[in-house]
Design a protein that fits this description.
The protein is an alpha/beta fold. The protein contains four helices and three strands. A three-stranded parallel sheet has the order 1-3-2, with helices on one face.
Length: 98
């Protein structure tokens, strides 16, 4: 059987941060459902991994000088994320930027 993912794409001001904080703090108690956060409680870093520089939100775009810098960091984030994803058959991903 393959992996299963529940993807939560919350909009601003709808309690998404509270959901993310709860998932991150309780991830060891979720019965084999992984919450593979790498940076903070949410999965906002996935925007950096899967969007090119010109399509990043202003907050993420300001973190990188150019596409080459984004790509270098994206490869590191992607590798860490995949290692965490492989630890569970079921995962939850949550971000307002997906």
């Amino acid at each position: 059987m393959g992996k299963k993912a529940l993807i939560h794409i919350g909009t601003g001001k709808t309690g998404t941060t509270s959901i993310q904080q709860s998932l991150a703090s309780q991830k060891r108690k979720m019965g084999g459902v992984g919450y593979p956060n790498i940076v903070g409680n949410a999965h906002h870093f996935l925007e950096v991994v899967y969007q090119d520089y010109s399509h990043l939100s202003r907050g993420h775009r300001s973190d990188y000088a150019d596409e080459a810098a984004r790509l270098k960091h994206a490869k590191v984030l992607h590798s860490k994320f995949l290692r965490r994803v492989r630890q569970n058959k079921r995962i939850i991903i949550s971000s307002e930027f997906l």
